[in-house]
Amino acid sequence: MAVGIFDSGLGGLTVWDVVAKRLPEVPFVYYADSANAPYGVRTADDIFALTKSAVEALWADGCDLVVLACNTAAANSLRRMQEAGVPPGKRVLGVFVPLIEALTERRWGDQSPPREVAVKHVALFATPATVSSRAFQRELAFRAIGVDVEAQACGGVVDAIEEGDLILAEALARSHVDALKRKMPMPEAAVLGCTHYPMLQEVFQEALGPEVKVFSQAQIVAESLADYLTRHPQMAGTGEGTRFLTSGDPARVSQGATRFLRRQIEFVKA
């Protein structure tokens, strides 16, 4: 029994890495659906079907709590899964809501009505599927009013990172910031709405300028998960360490993960 962390590929490792250091006593199972990645260019129904299948596989593997460490999966599937009904004793959480709560300076789980917040102009960088879902704007509207969001679909960035071509990824990130600035010249905050993007956080920050506060997810999600497990300790699991599963080629995914985190990571076939 462990806490499941799901992503379409390697991006969720940025979340797992911080979460595992924050919660060293918690066992994890990381599942990368590499055979079907990237999700960012798929239809909403495809993303939902793949995400649902992966979450159910993790539940069956003993992970009563599964974290969708993939913004595209969370944006297109989380609310739909919750509305359809989650089996008794199982939970699925996403990475979007903790990020929005940090942006709007609301406490974790705050259910009060939406209110005005300090930040009025927000840039969102995400995959095409996340942008088209408008999940960020929807979840933000539950918590804040009067916030202008300009979303930029960052095509190609995830593919470049997964292939290890950081030079191309950095060039694409800068071009997407330039495109965003043509629509919103002076954002006050920027949200990196993909768990791959922390690899390029310094690039985004440099391109946006020092006056823009950049929100990335790993540390925010780690603190939120720690708070959740404090309130629901039975969901933490009783296993040991972390297992890494993939639907793709384990050798290729292991090589990419090792490059991604700069230390040896071994995946096995799911």
Secondary-structure topology with pairs:
Elements: E1 3-7, H1 13-22, E2 28-32, H2 44-60, E3 65-68, H3 71-84, E4 91-94, H4 96-103, E5 115-116, E6 121-126, H5 128-133, H6 135-141, E7 144-145, E8 148-153, H7 157-162, H8 166-183, E9 189-192, H9 201-208, E10 213-215, H10 218-231, E11 242-246, H11 250-261, E12 268-269
Parallel strand pairs: 1-2, 1-3, 2-11, 3-4, 5-7, 6-8, 6-9, 9-10, 11-12
**Which oligomeric state applies?**
single chain
- What portion of residues is helical? 40-55%
Mean pLDDT: 94
The top level CATH class name of the largest domain: Alpha Beta
State the main characteristics:
270 residues, alpha/beta, Rossmann fold, 2 domains, 4-stranded parallel beta sheet, 11 helices, 12 strands, 44% helix
